[in-house]
Write a structure and sequence with these properties.
Helix 1 runs antiparallel to helix 2. The longest helix is centred in the middle third of the chain and has 16 residues. The protein is elongated. Helix content is about 30%, strand content about 0%. The N and C termini lie far apart (about 50 Å). The protein is mostly helical and about 100 residues long.
Length: about 100
């Protein structure tokens, strides 16, 4: 009896890339401060129907941090559900590879 099945055939594992929207965890906490500030903003605005604009800017800062450190692919803000906001130059949309 051989391992890998009755006929001796073994299956070859072929890795597949992650789905869009999945990305590596920030194990080293490189963007932990930006994440905490953003989550605090969301918690403080729970009673509101819409997310305030200042929370959206914080989301951009957090996502920009992740993109700068290679924790997610660079993409345009519009594709990430965040409108382009010219008021905050530190979160200019990154160059998209597509």
């Amino acid at each position: 009896m051989s391992f890998g099945g009755a006929s001796g055939n073994t299956k070859v594992f072929k890795p597949t890339p992650p789905d869009r929207g999945s990305f590596p965890l920030d194990h080293d906490g490189e963007c932990k401060i930006q994440m905490q500030i953003y989550l605090d903003c969301l918690r403080s605005s729970r009673s509101r129907e819409r997310v305030p604009a200042d929370c959206r800017l914080l989301a951009k800062e957090y996502l920009n941090c992740r993109m700068d450190r290679g924790l997610m692919l660079k993409d345009n803000w519009v594709n990430l559900g965040l409108p382009d906001d010219k008021r905050n130059s530190s979160t200019d949309p990154p160059e998209s590879k597509s």
